[in-house]
Amino acid sequence: MKLLNAFFVIIFSISAVIQYNDPDPALWMAIYGYGALACTLAFLEKDNRIWHFAGIIVFLTYAIFLFFVTDGVLSWLTQHRAESITGPMAHEKPWIEFTREFLGLLILSFAHLLNLLFRFKKNPPTQITDHEN
Hints:
Number of domains: 1
Order of helices and strands: HHHHH
Strand content: under 5%
Radius of gyration: 18 Å
Oligomer: single chain
Helix content: 55-70%
Largest sheet: none
Distance between the termini: 42 Å
Number of strands: 0
Number of helices: 5
């Protein structure tokens, strides 16, 4: 998991830096920065489950919004037949931006989920036992 977290730190840090030319750079720099920070702390084994739970909740909530928003992912899938989103973004194709953001949020959520699963397996919660007979 350390190697995977190192990979996520690099990818999320690069993603945060290249957001400077995004229409909403502060938001996306903060989102990817949060992912990089949480994975850095996980790499150093100084993370906390709350970091990962919070990330999953916020990122998936925003992803659901982007899925259903006008000209969002659902529109890309149904009205635009899932056309390529690898080309340049244009004002007449807002679904490209929303779909890319949606996919980024899913990747971030996946990283947080992996860290939760790994942490849970490594440090399972203590069980309460009943010693009364």
